[in-house]
Structures are given as C-alpha cells and as structure tokens.
C-alpha cells in the first residue's frame, strides 16, 4: 500500500474511534435500518445522456493543498446539478482533503442527483456512516483493501442499498475489482506514489473493463477533448474535480465543458 494511503488511514483512525464512542455501531446500525433506499448512483450512467459527469466537491488535496478557499458545499452542489452533473462526489476526509460528512448530509437536503461518499474506507462503520449521511454510493479503493475486505465491504454496502465505485490504478487492481461485487469501476489517472497523472494509461485500462461494470474515468480531465478520448476508450462516466473547483463559477465551467463536448464529440 503506498505511503500516502498508510498516512491518511493512520490519521483517520483516531477520528473514527471518537465517532464510534459518540455513536456506537449498534446505535448507528439501528438508525440506518430505518432509512429508505437512496437514489441509485448506478442509474446516473445507464439512464442519462452523455457526457455523464460526476462533479467532485473537493476543497483541498494532499498534492495541491487548498484548491478552493471559498468552499460553500451546498451552493456549489446546486450549481453543478443545475449545470448538468449527473452525480456528485463529496470528499468527506477531513485531514488532507478538508472534507466532512456534514457536507454530504447538507448537500443531500438540497440536491436530487445521487451522491458518492469519497473517502478512505477501511472499516465497515464508515459504510453505515455514509448511508446515514445520505450517500447513494461509497468509494472502495483497491490499493487500500485486501481482497477479502474489498468483497465484504462491497457486500455490506449493497445490502444497505448503496452502489459501490471501486477505484483502481492498474490492471491487477482492475482484476481484483472484477472479482468482487463492485458495481462500477473507476480508473484514477493519478499515481499514488508520484502524484503524476496519465490519461493515456487511463484510456488503455478503461478498455479492459466490461461495459456492464460501468467504467468511470477519474482525475486529470480538463477539456472536452479529454472526455471524447476517454469515451472512445469505453468510459461511461467522468469524475471531474479540480478543473471545476478552481473555476470562479463551477456551474458555468461545467456548462461550457458540456457545450464543447456536444460540438466536437
């Protein structure tokens, strides 16, 4: 497991223990069992027209620091929904991405499109947290989880009515995700060891994912040309964060991106 993942998880563990003390797992499970099924995340990629863009709500990252100072999650989420995003990815990791579970629940009160909890999930408690906060799906990172845990966490999420976006960075991780109940498979353009991005590698890897597993291209997508190229390679969805979050008005930036796509793709 790359060092950055080890560090993020190590720093999350004390916070998770505090959360468990404040709301024990049995109580959290009781709450979750009373909640209705969330809106399907997967449906955003088989019931909507392309380009199917996931707008990512991200204030900061380990490699770039603070990306957006004036981070108003509900306002930004409504902008992206109005501009044509088919789903949202909400960073909830607090230490390195400056995220919060509160963002997820607050956005859910104002936005109808499905929402992904994007975090570093290493404990089943986090999956129940996601459901309680209004998530439609959770992210499971193949590089972070042994195969047994990857399968078990996928099964837990699905049993709660959540879709699963599995994240891979190479062919071996794709094969592991294909050998699990994961319903959508994302290829992250960023190398977790060097932080360099490579869309050519994403395009190559996307081609090895069956359509029924909904290949998603993640990170480093900056233009309609990028979307066109990845779509030709087989991607059915595109997760875009930094490009939108750095724009003065993310909604306008997304509209322009979609208009360019419609002209050239």
Domain count: the total is 1
**CATH class division:** Alpha Beta
Low-confidence segments, ≥5 residues, pLDDT <50? none
Assembly state: single chain
Structural class: alpha/beta
- Span between N and C termini? 38 Å
Strand content: 15-25%
| Helix-strand sequence | HHEEEHEHEHEHEHEHEHEHH
In CATH, the homologous superfamily goes by the name: Aldolase class I
- Number of DSSP helices? 11
Radius of gyration: 17 Å
Number of distinct beta strands: 10
Walk across the major sheet and give the strand order.
1-4-5-6-7-8-9-10
Average residue-wise pLDDT: 95
- Which sheet architecture does the biggest sheet show? 8 strands, parallel, barrel
Percent range for helical residues? 40-55%
Please tell me the CATH architecture by its name.
Answer: Alpha-Beta Barrel
- CATH topology: the name is TIM Barrel
The rough form would be described as globular
Q: What does this protein look like?
A:
This protein has eleven helices and ten strands. It has a single domain (3-264), classed as Alpha-Beta Barrel (TIM Barrel). It has helices at 3-22, 25-33, 73-83, 101-108, 124-132, 147-159, 171-178, 199-206, 224-233, 242-245, 250-264, and strands at 53-57, 60-61, 65-66, 87-91, 115-118, 137-141, 163-168, 184-188, 215-218, 237-240. Helix 2 (25-33) packs across helix 5, helix 3 (73-83) runs parallel beside helix 11 (250-264) and helix 9 packs across helix 11 (250-264). With 265 residues, the chain is an alpha/beta fold. The strands form two sheets. Strands 1-4-5-6-7-8-9-10 form an eight-stranded parallel beta barrel, surrounded by seven helices. It has a two-stranded antiparallel sheet with strand order 2-3. The chain is globular, with a radius of gyration of 17 Å.
């Amino acid at each position: 497991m790359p060092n950055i993942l080890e560090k993020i998880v190590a720093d999350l563990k004390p916070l998770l223990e505090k959360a468990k003390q404040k709301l024990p797992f049995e109580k959290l499970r009781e709450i979750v069992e009373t909640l209705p099924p969330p809106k399907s995340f997967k449906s955003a990629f088989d019931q909507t027209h392309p380009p199917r863009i996931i707008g990512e709500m991200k204030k900061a990252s380990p490699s770039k620091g603070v990306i957006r100072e004036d981070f108003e999650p509900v306002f930004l989420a409504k902008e992206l929904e109005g501009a044509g995003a088919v789903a949202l990815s909400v960073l909830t990791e607090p230490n390195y991405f400056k995220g919060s579970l509160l963002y997820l629940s607050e956005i859910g009160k104002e936005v109808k499109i499905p929402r992904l909890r994007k975090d570093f999930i290493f404990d089943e408690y986090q999956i129940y947290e996601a459901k309680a906060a209004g998530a439609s799906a959770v992210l499971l990172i193949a590089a972070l989880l042994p195969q047994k845990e990857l399968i078990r966490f996928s099964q837990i999420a699905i049993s709660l009515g959540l879709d699963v976006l599995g994240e891979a960075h190479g062919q071996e991780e794709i094969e592991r995700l294909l050998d699990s109940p994961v319903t959508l498979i994302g290829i992250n353009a960023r190398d977790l060891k060097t932080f360099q991005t490579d869309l050519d590698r994403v395009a190559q890897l996307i081609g090895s994912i069956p359509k029924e597993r909904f290949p998603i291209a993640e990170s480093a997508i900056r233009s309609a040309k990028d979307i066109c190229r990845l779509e030709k390679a087989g991607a059915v969805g595109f997760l875009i964060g930094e490009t939108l979050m750095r724009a003065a008005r993310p909604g306008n930036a997304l509209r322009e991106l979609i208009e360019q796509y419609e002209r050239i793709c």
